[in-house]
Amino acid sequence: MNGISKLALKESQIMKIHYITGILALFVVAVHILMRLVVPYSSSLEYAHVIANYHNIFYAILLESILVLISIHGFNGVRVILLELRQSKIWENSVTITTIIAMIVLVSYGTRTIILANGLGL
Amino acid sequence: MRELDNMTVKSDKKAGCDPRDDSFDLKKTTLRVFRTNTAQGKDSHFDSLVVPVQRWTTVLDSLLYAKSYLDSSIGIRYSCRMASCGSCGMKINGIPRLACYTKISELEDPVVVCEPLPNFPVIRDLVTDFTQFFNHHKSINPYIQNLNYDKTEKIDEVSSSHSHRQSREEVDKYLQFSYCIKCGLCYSACPTVATDTKFPGPQALAQLYRYYADSRDAGKNRLNIVDDRHGLWRCHFAGSCSKVCPKGVDPALGIQLLRSYMLGISKDKRNV
Amino acid sequence: MKMLGQKNNRDNREGLKGWLNPLRYGWERVSYWLQRLTGIFLLVYFVGHVFETSSLVGGRNAWDTMLEMTQTTWGHTFLIMVIGASTFHSANGIRLIFTHVGIGLGKPGRPDYPYYPSSLNTRQRSGIWIALILTAVAMLYGANVLLGGD
Q: What global pTM score does this model have?
């Protein structure tokens, strides 16, 4: 447990990450949405169009960064809300561990989609 | 003396305002007072009491009237009656306010509901327990720490007056926060305090800023005290603390300024 | 926070309803409430979005089936809410980041009666209103694109 507590970030460091991920997410999501608006809405959802997007390595990197940034920002936000609800060592540690695990699972699952879709044929 | 009396009567000529005037209109209002006794395990309920009200009657005035003439068992805490001691904080018509600082005529409601301050354990009726609140206040070391001065300066008149000299700008940085009367209204209005018992609350955090911003203070560990899961970062700037503060302290401002020091945006004179 | 003695007492804490009711303390409290709710809502949407787009790897049929399920009037209404939530959360979030670093709050001074807290100034309130106006505009634009046809 000592080793883990050495790894623990200070709350000010966590919140700096929270602000930075929030600002960066705003930019990458804006690009993600703008890419959709350059073609008519319905055709932007066509399978071929979407797969073509995933084949573009820059777009794939953009999606991956959205995935990572929003997961960190969002799950940290949930952690903050849950920490404020109840106060006990068990609850607080469970909340921290659960949100980290949820974050890792979501990023892994999303990355799997990006990698597989990147390798798919049209 | 006769002249003075005449002057008073003249200046109070406004219709319906002078009790000596026949047209004086004594209004009545209903106080709904929260009643409970936690030590005796009694169920809580509201008592309705009809009290006379004038334009200048405060909620505390009417509660004291009710206590004197209608029900002497009402539990209230008060002292100065002029918003200086911070004893008579209570929830009045849903908002934490000082009873001595709230005129019934300003509430514009025929019924005045008085409840104990939320987020404070109730002792009896409108009296709440401030132990936790004061513990949070103590935990931020609310005093000037200046070890260098204590150890090295000679305590003579010249050096002590020199070491305490502050410019007007330096005083302005913390003065408004030192007007805090610890009435607990901000603590009561804060949405984080509503669920988080470990969060120090707006009062304690604003006081931390008050000492941190004081040029006489050299405390090295001040910010670290609140840099944890339930510390400074659990303030989300809902601003309710500043809204209810009866002394213009603006705790929300102090907390955000403290945060700017912690983030390194505002440069710290002590390199903490 | 390290407490000095006495265990934490939850008696008479307002609890969740303390922050679920935004109507008592002015616009700043409304903004706090909306920031929280939109944040939670957006995370739920984001998890759902990652899940729905994963149907890509199942091939064209899986993707088209997912589209059939989500591209409905209700699905579009939900998306319009997502557009509104993300616009408000972003615009208000930027305002909050500025305030958290002490920008736009005014300076501490000598308070004179009647007291007006400088942190709850018109600049801050305008920031909240601008965020709300942007939200409405974004939702209208989204509704035009999603429900109005191409």
A: 0.88
